Amino acid sequence: MKRIKLEIAYDGTGYCGWQLQPGQPTIEAALNKALTELLGEEIEVIGASRTDSGVHALGNVAIFDTDSAIPAEKICLAVNQRLPEDIRVQSSTEVPLDFHPRKTVSRKTYEYRILNRRIAVPTQRLYATHVYYELDVSLMQEAAKYLIGEHDYKSFCSVKTQVLDTVRTIYQLTVTKNGDIITIFVTGSGFLYNMVRIITGTLIEVGRGAYPPEKVVEILKGCDRSLAGPTALAQGLTLMKIEYDKTMMPAAE
């Protein structure tokens, strides 16, 4: 028995998120089917991040256990032949049997793209959220600074969140603009349900002048979802990468 770690990229447009849902297309279901067919044994992957419907990824991570003799590094090439074209395994490596993608110390990085122009561009509609009114990026940048560090982000997660501990650490949060595209780039120790999308929705409110930047401090302290901005749409969000603490993940024997 060996444990294989996959790094996976996908266009989430045609899927109801990562997690298995009866009768619905999901990333997890597609991977399970392709790996089961390839390896001739029942495979059930465990993902690091259960992205929502419509959310994309360039570097999500999953593991599975197998008795197959196929070398770990060749599994990615073989399984890609069986996957739909909007899912591709970028790498496959053997890891220790005790490695778990959600229980090992990690840093996750997300990118959110906003198309900020009066008229939408059809080719951007699946990968950026269109905001037709002008956003002040300097105000968004000022507000973003208040969110960096260790905080209770209860105001920035969905009311459906089931976890008891809503304290997380954001290491980096930047807002930049290139042409019509505003990019929000955030790296943290972990994220609550809809956290990045709610942060984005709040920064959009700041950018349009509905909130002053310092209101973010009040929102954090309030620990109340109703204080923060709306949840931004899913299609602008991409999970860029997940980095693991190498001291917690030694090389496999």
CATH superfamily heading of the largest domain: Pseudouridine synthase I, catalytic domain, C-terminal subdomain
Would you state the CATH class of the largest domain? Alpha Beta
Please work out how many helical segments DSSP would assign.
Answer: 5
Count all strands and give the number.
10
Shape: globular
Distance between the termini: 12 Å
CATH architecture of the largest domain: 2-Layer Sandwich
Percent of residues in β-strands: 25-35%
Biggest sheet statistics: 10 strands, mixed
* CATH fold name of the largest domain: Alpha-Beta Plaits
The helix-strand sequence is EHEEHEEEHEEEHHE
**What is the typical, i.e. mean, pLDDT?**
95
Count of the domains = 2
Low-confidence stretches are 247-253
Class from secondary-structure proportions: alpha+beta
Description:
- The protein is an alpha+beta fold and 253 residues long.
- The protein has two domains: 2-103, Alpha-Beta Plaits (2-Layer Sandwich); 106-241, Alpha-Beta Plaits (2-Layer Sandwich).
- It contains five helices and ten strands.
- Strands 1, 2, 3, 4, 5, 6, 7, 8, 9 and 10 form a ten-stranded mixed β-sheet that branches.
- Helix 3 packs across helix 4.
- The two termini are 12 Å apart.
- Mean pLDDT is 95; it is low at 247-253.
